[in-house]
Prior knowledge:
The protein has 432 residues and is of the alpha/beta class. The protein folds into two domains: 6-229 and 415-430, 3-Layer(aba) Sandwich (Rossmann fold); 233-413, Glycogen Phosphorylase B (Rossmann fold). The chain has 14 helices and 13 strands. The strands form two sheets. The protein has a seven-stranded parallel β-sheet with strand order 3-2-1-4-5-6-7, sandwiched between helices. The chain has a six-stranded parallel β-sheet with strand order 10-9-8-11-12-13, sandwiched between helices. Helix 3 (118-132) packs across helix 4 (145-157) and helix 7 (265-277) crosses helix 12 (383-398).
Amino acid sequence: MGARQRTVLMISRYFPPMFDVGGKRAYRFARYLPEQGWRAAVLTGRVPERRPVDDAPLELPEGTRVERVYEPFWFREIGRRPSDGTVSTPVRSPAEPTQESPRRRLLGLPVGPDLAMLPHVVREATRLGREVEADVVWATSSPYATLVQGHQVARALGKPLVLDLRDPWTINFFQRRRARWALEVDRRVESRLFHAADKVILNCESALASYRELYPELPADRMLAIRNAFDPAQRPEPEPEHERGADAPIRLLHFGNCYGPRRLETVLRAMAAVRERRPQAPAVVLENLGRVGTADLELAASLGLSERFVHGVFVPYAEGLRRLAAADLAVLVAYGDETLYIPAKLYDYLLARAPVACLSQPGELADIVEGCGAGRAVRPGDVEGVATLIDAAIDARARNERAFTPDEDALASYGAPATTRALAGVFDELAR
């Protein structure tokens, strides 16, 4: 009789078909873990009834179990979030909650509002873990309450705990506007969790370095970085070059929300500069698939670019990838000057082989984009730098070429098979 396939209990608040980008990391791991001798049992949230969802079919291996019981019966969504890209209403700039808003009050709660679901999630996840005979517990944030939930579930099951942070927690710049007392509680909770976990995974090397500096007393191998990834099986078919047409508009595409610290200002000003110096060139159109800030809409109007700045809602993932593959430039905007983050959309851009115009400070994100030949990085505010990239896209179109073509061998390390192999290695080590 063959050895029993080992099982990881995955606690992820989000999971497809939800549009929430956080669910894609768990989904890709669940899809490829069986190739490494592991199967996934996923506890996640129910499919929202009042928000659109992605209609693409889930392609999960046989034996994968998904239970959508994260929320108790009494739970209700608090309404539209600024990050809800399924609505087209622009986000007021700056996107700061008012002192009286419920959202502002929630920001003051230690760990976050999902902590109220702790007893329910622990009960359901523990039940599921016992039913599938889980060997390891993996909990991914945000919300950060899932880390607390995962800790209690692992303790109840007597199994190793792996905490997975898609974004930093207490060193996250979004935490700066929280009440001081609440942030102090979060720091204590985070510290206890990091000390209790068997492994802590960050999704980029820069966040890993910052956390190692914050917790120097932890063993060097307690924390590691496993980046997000793309699923190579979902690569879209490239658009034939001859269908673009030499005089058709040059298409710039930003995939996802762009408001608050993420602005399209530099791109809009670069578009205006190119229009002025190359009046005979094809029109340049910027499309944003997600919510935008009112400040960028107002800027576009002042520059006479309202008709060339198009924004809409999230589209099904497969359609979004097709649009990326057809874009002359895919615009990738970092969180202002922050460097502890790699936007998940980077991997969608790499999957689609879209030429990338990356607005970020020098660092890990810029190194990835330029290191694999996918595009170029310029600093936020460098209008001339972005204008040069638009010029390159115009000239490439005239040659019936792409502005940048990534190195296929370099892209392999950013695929889900490679990152899942790294995660399975962590599980193998803990389940010995």
